Amino acid sequence: MKDWTHATLDDIIDFAIRIEEESFAFYSEAALAQKGQALPEIVKLLKILALEERNHKDILLKRKEGWRLADVPRAEVGASVQRIVDLPSVQADAEIGDVLLAAAAREKGTAALYRSLMALSDFGDLQEVFVDLVAQEEGHERRLMSFHKSLYPVSQE
Prior knowledge:
mainly alpha; Ferritin; 69% helix
């Protein structure tokens, strides 16, 4: 794991971009693997989430240049980012329930990461982006868990 003690603003944003790239790949691969096996609306959700993760990356890339042009001071991140969640992965032949749970865990971990990064940044525009991304990642988690609950309802006995 990277030592975040002396991370810069660029390091923070680059890491967030990498997480979005990994999430895009995760959802794209999951949609492909589940096509013809899972309900069409679940495959559609996975494709939509892939596109939204790509959009998150694009937002970060576009904003990164603006932050750089604004001559933003280097940000000292500190040791608290060392606790970054290890985002889960699934096998290509995984059951849809496992895919949904892993995806929800990824979203939860990514939201937690963005909350940490938001707290470590005193640059208002950057905080606004992370606030928005936290809300979107939490929305993704809720949608995934809703589908999981609809497929695997818990007995009320």
